[in-house]
Amino acid sequence: MKNFHIITLFPDAFDSYLGESIIKRARDDGKIKIKFYNPRDFTGEPDKRKNRRIDQRPYGGGPGMVIQALPVLKAVQSTSRRTKKKQKIILLSPRGKQFTNEEANKLAKSKSDIVLISGRYEGIDARVKKILKPTEYSVGPYTLTGGELPAMILIDAISRRIKGVLGDEQSVEENRIAGADVYTRPEILTYKKKKYRVPKVLLSGHHKKIDEWREGKK
Question: CA dist 214 to 34, 50, 85, 102, Å?
């Protein structure tokens, strides 16, 4: 089983995606396990208010607010109490290295638990990086509102490479010859009085020619 520990201020944001389709089935089948840790629960404040203060203005001035280091550090520390496995700590950041299929394969094959830290606002106090020395990943050359979507992307990309999650390992697209274009029934689609046909080579049954066609479509 692969364990994911998610550090996030908004755990409810994950419900819809992680509760559907292949990821849900992988969780139900015990292939992956996902736990959430909200830094608000580690502020040291005695009450249980949902909006416990977690951010402060940045030193030196500047726009926005910065997530405090200590609650995040305590949340990460809490994850280690739930497992005896080694941990791979990952910080989702637009300044991180590009996350790729190769990185997903490495993480899927690793026996370590995965801790994903989702940032928000203007970021997390830089001392978190100095103390934890996490691997920083970016999911693309753009900036998002928070790290929740990138965390879901990593969970999906890693999980589908874990044996048994997809059922047929050939379903991992990059492990087989898969063109950019795919077709299914009907053979002839009529739309607005115009006919659109499936390429003849896909109907030929000639696997070598089909593979060559797909290679040419990549």
Answer: 36, 52, 42, 22
Judge if 105 and 205 occupy the same domain: no
Query: pLDDT grade, residue 153 (50/70/90)?
Result: very high
Rounded to the nearest integer, the mean pLDDT of the chain is 90
What range does the domain containing 202 cover?
A: 177-217
User: What amino acid is encoded at 6 in this protein?
Assistant: I
Between 101-109 and 148-159, two packed helices, what is the crossing angle to 10 degrees?
70
Domain count, the chain: 2
Residue 97's DSSP bridge partners are 137
CATH classification of the domain holding 51: 3.40.1280.10
Taking only the tens place, the pLDDT of each residue in 10-20 is 999 999 999 99
Q: Which residue has the tokens 């608000």?
A: 40
The one-letter amino acid at 176: R
Output the pTM of the full model: 0.85
Query: Are 64 and 84 within one domain?
Result: yes
Per residue in 166-205, pLDDT (tens digit) is: 976 655 655 554 557 889 999 999 999 999 999 999 999 9
User: In degrees to the nearest 10, what's the CA dihedral of 195, 196, 202, 205?
Assistant: -10
Cα–Cα distance, 14 to 152 (Å, whole number): 7
